[in-house]
């Protein structure tokens, strides 16, 4: 897998992490161009990831010789695989592979860790979803496709809010694929719709003067979709089952319940909801998780950008501006105007729980998990059946958290059992992480140079912030009430000295080993000016490529308050000495930049999707072995089209799913001047979509 391809082109735009200015505007409200919200003096867990280059064992070196000797592995990185070619129309290829391609793919299949035996996709800038040789793909569902009864076919020139409320939403992100008992060959797909990009949605869009119809379409395009999908028995192809009774849309105007310690607080009461328990809508749902009791969790991330006209210090800590919002929603609903409705903003920034098996259920916002920019919410159970939820706060120099529930999950499917389990995230203790390196501070200089002990590692503790019970809530932070801790969680983290991280995003426990992996996307402000310097957990200054941290709870018990940590992967060009791949030889790995969402396959391999890659190639999906002699062996599985981000990966035995988010979101693009023709070819609207990938021979992925 030696990386022979030179860097292609230049990263899109000049924004941090390689994002286009358009993406920064619409997804996070130009967060990276605003003052860093965290101005506390906490020690920063900086960019220490880069230097563990010298830890190559003889065994791993021998593995490289084996890979290089295969020859074909290197060829697979030099050019985009022929079998991944896309027709001129821009639609994905689903035909049978040529005999030569099938033979070549078979010849390479035995190389690599189990689950990762495929010829890696080369870095590229193709306007398509590019997959390995011997694999096929299809678009499962696109923005605007009808999923509810009575919803019309998508007509991009005549969009209405009523139509969009029955159609698949915009900018799909997190995905969950759940079993559907009694319906053979069908599963239930749940998708987040993070944000809207009105410039690519509406012809002639005037950002300074949006119309009410455009705003209401955008409200309807946010939220969640639940849609039944059916597999083709002769392939891995998935198609949406329209108008199924379980199909559902949740939007920015759907009724939610506010639950947990903040429900009914004076901090969340509004003129429209004097009870402080009923909220309209969910916004900017990024990643999420699936609970052991059969529901899905969804993290409200960059909610700040939808609100206008704030002047409070608490709002500034969350990045909420003093002027108008990008989308101007405050012109059409006063709840988005902080000056007129000061508490509405306190009702966003939570983890949402959704019951996809009950179309009549009311989704909940769990305040006991804290209020911040939740990237995700992933669950594991303690030995006695209590839930533990991990979540990152996706902001430069912010923190990552876990919640340890106090109530045990019940087994069964009765209504009483489901109601009990839906309350599990309302009682328990919220913690924030503090990390300490084990090397002298002088050995961490921000270059990624490895300390003398040969690795970036250390210990950590979970600091309790507040505990919620059925009788009430107790704060563990001096000077803050429990309600204040749960509403102003970032400030609570500041007070207790939590470790400042480089944009902690998705956090996933490995179902095979129990180790927890934290994706830290990047932080170009690390060590710049007066910003916090590098430390052993975040070891590089001006960290544009990000890293992945591996965390081991004490005794491997998720409720523990102590842990050990090490840097598993330091992203970037493998030729850069300030990169690290768990000690695996770097001339045998794919290049990776800006890790974002993470997931696991049935073999315990970590799969990483990227956002804003800074190496000249499009974003993609990568698999990496986490154990055994091939630990750290990383291979690129796919790339996404121009301007797109790879989101929501699901890795099953015989299928991989990804969300292709914001394709064509390149500076200067619009409906009139599109930057991408994906997925339906020239002359059509660019549409975010879900894609399924499978092996052409029907066998398991990567074996």
UniProtKB/TrEMBL annotation:
What Pfam family is a match for this entry? PhoX
Which PANTHER family does this chain map to? DUF839 DOMAIN-CONTAINING PROTEIN, SLR8030 PROTEIN
Task: From the Swiss-Prot or TrEMBL record, give the protein name.
Answer: Phosphatase
Annotated source species: Streptomyces tuirus
- Biological classification of the source: Bacteria, Bacillati, Actinomycetota, Actinomycetes, Kitasatosporales
Provide the transmembrane region boundaries: none
SUPFAM superfamilies in the record, alphabetically? Calcium-dependent phosphotriesterase
């Amino acid at each position: 897998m030696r990386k022979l391809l030179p860097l292609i082109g230049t990263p899109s735009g000049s924004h941090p992490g390689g994002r286009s200015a358009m993406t920064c505007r619409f997804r996070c409200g130009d967060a990276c161009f605003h003052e860093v919200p965290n101005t506390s003096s906490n020690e920063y867990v900086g960019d220490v990831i880069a230097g563990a280059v010298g830890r190559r064992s003889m065994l791993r070196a021998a593995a490289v010789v084996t890979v290089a000797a295969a020859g074909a592995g290197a060829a697979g990185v030099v050019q985009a695989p022929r079998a991944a070619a896309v027709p001129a129309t821009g639609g994905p290829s689903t035909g049978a592979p040529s005999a030569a391609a099938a033979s070549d793919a078979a010849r390479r299949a035995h190389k690599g860790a189990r689950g990762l035996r495929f010829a890696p996709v080369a870095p590229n800038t193709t306007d398509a979803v590019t997959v390995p040789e011997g694999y096929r793909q299809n678009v499962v569902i696109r923005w605007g496709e009808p999923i509810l009864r009575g919803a019309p076919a998508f007509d991009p020139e005549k969009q209405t809010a009523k139509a969009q409320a029955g159609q698949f939403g915009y900018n799909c992100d997190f995905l969950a694929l759940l079993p559907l008992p009694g319906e053979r060959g069908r599963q239930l797909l749940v998708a987040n719709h993070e944000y809207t990009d009105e410039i690519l949605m509406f012809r002639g869009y005037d950002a300074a003067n949006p119309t009410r119809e455009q705003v209401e379409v955008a409200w309807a395009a946010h939220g969640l979709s639940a849609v039944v999908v059916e597999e083709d028995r002769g392939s891995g192809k998935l198609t949406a089952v329209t108008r199924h009774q379980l199909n559902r849309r949740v939007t920015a105007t759907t009724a939610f319940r506010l639950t947990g310690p903040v429900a009914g607080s004076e901090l969340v009461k509004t003129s429209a909801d004097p009870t402080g328990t009923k909220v309209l809508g969910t916004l900017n749902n990024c990643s999420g998780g699936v609970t052991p009791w059969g529901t899905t969790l969804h993290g409200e991330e960059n909610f700040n950008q939808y609100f206008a006209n704030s002047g409070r210090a608490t709002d500034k800590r969350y990045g909420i501006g003093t002027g108008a919002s990008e989308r101007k929603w405050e012109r059409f609903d006063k709840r988005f105007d902080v000056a007129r409705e000061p508490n509405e903003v306190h009702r966003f920034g939570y983890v949402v729980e959704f019951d996809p098996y009950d179309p009549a259920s009311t989704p909940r916002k769990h305040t006991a998990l804290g209020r911040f920019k939740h990237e995700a919410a992933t669950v594991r159970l303690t030995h006695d059946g209590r839930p533990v939820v991990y979540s990152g706060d996706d902001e430069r120099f912010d923190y990552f958290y876990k919640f340890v529930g106090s109530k045990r999950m019940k087994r069964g499917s009765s209504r009483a059992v489901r109601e009990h389990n839906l309350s599990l995230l309302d009682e328990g203790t919220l913690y924030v992480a503090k990390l300490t390196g084990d090397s002298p501070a002088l050995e961490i200089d921000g270059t990624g140079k490895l300390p003398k002990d040969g690795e970036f590692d250390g210990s950590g503790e979970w600091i309790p912030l507040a505990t919620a019970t059925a009788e009430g809530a107790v704060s563990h932070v001096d000077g803050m009430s429990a309600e204040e801790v749960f509403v102003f969680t970032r400030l609570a983290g500041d007070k207790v000295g939590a470790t400042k991280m480089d944009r902690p995003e998705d956090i996933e426990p490995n179902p095979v080993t129990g180790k927890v992996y934290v994706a830290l996307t990047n932080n170009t402000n690390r060590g710049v000016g007066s910003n916090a310097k590098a430390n052993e957990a975040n070891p590089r200054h001006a960290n544009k490529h990000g890293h992945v941290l591996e965390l081991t709870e004490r005794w491997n018990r998720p409720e523990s308050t102590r842990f050990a940590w090490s840097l598993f992967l330091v992203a970037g060009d493998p030729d850069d000495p300030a990169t690290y791949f768990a000690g695996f030889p770097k001339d045998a790995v794919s290049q990776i930049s800006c890790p974002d969402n993470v997931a696991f396959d049935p073999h315990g391999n970590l799969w990483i999707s990227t956002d804003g890659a800074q190496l000249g190639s499009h974003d993609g999906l990568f698999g990496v072995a986490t154990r055994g002699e091939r630990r750290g062996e990383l291979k690129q599985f796919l790339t996404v089209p121009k301007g797109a981000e790879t989101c929501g990966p699901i890795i099953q035995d015989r299928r991989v799913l990804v969300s292709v988010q914001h394709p064509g979101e390149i500076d200067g693009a619009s409906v009139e001047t599109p930057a991408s023709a994906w997925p339906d070819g020239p002359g059509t609207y660019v549409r975010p979509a879900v894609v399924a990938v499978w092996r052409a021979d029907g066998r398991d992925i990567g074996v």
